[in-house]
Fold this sequence. Notes:
single chain; 9-stranded mixed β-sheet; binds (2S)-2-hydroxybutanedioic acid; EC 1.1.1.37; Malate_DH_AS
Amino acid sequence: MNKQPIRVAVTGAAGNIGYALLFRIASGAMFGPDQPVALNLIEIPPALDALKGVVMELDDCAFPLLKDVVATTDMDEGFKDVNWALLVGSVPRKAGMERGDLLGINGKVFTGQGKAIGANAAPDVRVLVVGNPCNTNCLIAMNNAEGVPNDRFFAMTMLDENRAKTQLAQKAGVDVTEVSNMTIWGNHSATQYPDFYSAKIGGKSAAEVIGDEAWLKDTFIPDVQTRGAAIIKARGASSAASAANGIVDSVRALTTPTAEGDTFSMCLCSDGSYGTPEGLIISFPCRSDGEKIEIVKDIELNEFSRAKFDASVQELAEEREAVKDLI
Length: 327
Ligand code: NAD
Ligand code: LMR
């Protein structure tokens, strides 16, 4: 095996998601069992001791694929030559807050990170934003990363997609692998629209297979929209292992060809598809050929779906207005 390592920066590496994520990247779950990796772990000074402990544990795993670990509080060093930047580090919400309430606290972090990515990262860098509110934090990073094309920036709705798939599979009494084309439209927030009309179970419309529109509208949608809050209430902390799993699934979805006929949910820079404002970071149904990502443009949105999607996009437009000084 003499492939060059893929260098991956993870911010907030000593946090809860970081702790659930790094070991999966280093074990090969993200880029495959033949692909060496190097990790650039970025933290703020108060978390440096904890980060040193995480590095000790990575060492103690003797991962065959892990070729280098950099642990730093310096963003220039942290983003140096990275092929992937996973922007996780930021404050999570507490019970009773919406993710958008974090904009004032977390938004400004992403100007500096965007600049440091533009100045230091490898020419092929791709960025996945997880720290909330992830769509608008991604918008801020994208607009501050000089020289990095907009189509390299993504924010995560894969966790929402996975949540929605499991809810539909459990309701229909089928294996989760039977659920496909599960699109989350809009914002990673309580306005997101998990589209049960275009989702499929065993290749047929999920709405028809389940045959209970009242449940889909009044239980399924709010359950997916508020699942993050339900986990905070139950666990006393926001989702971490399932979020880390969503990050692994997101990067795999972006870097491997999508199965025939299927789609995955990803927030990316709108090109105006489905009549949305260009430049906003919006979750769409996407496909990948392993390198290039395309928005799937021919999904029919009925009146109900259109109204739900529009409301979520409207929220993103308002978030953009709130951070206009940072972009
Ligand atoms: P956490 O508090 O356990 O860890 C966050 C880490 O980030 C801490 O170690 C902190 O020191 C570090 N950090 C803070 N500011 C930083 C900066 N400027 N640079 C580098 N590191 C910094 O939180 P967590 O549970 O790991 O969650 C992290 C973020 O991910 C939160 O904003 C949370 O809301 C979000 N999240 C998003 C999704 C999603 O689906 N998009 C899912 C779960 C969590
Ligand atoms: C989630 O969806 O679990 C995360 O975005 C954390 C949160 O604040 O809900």
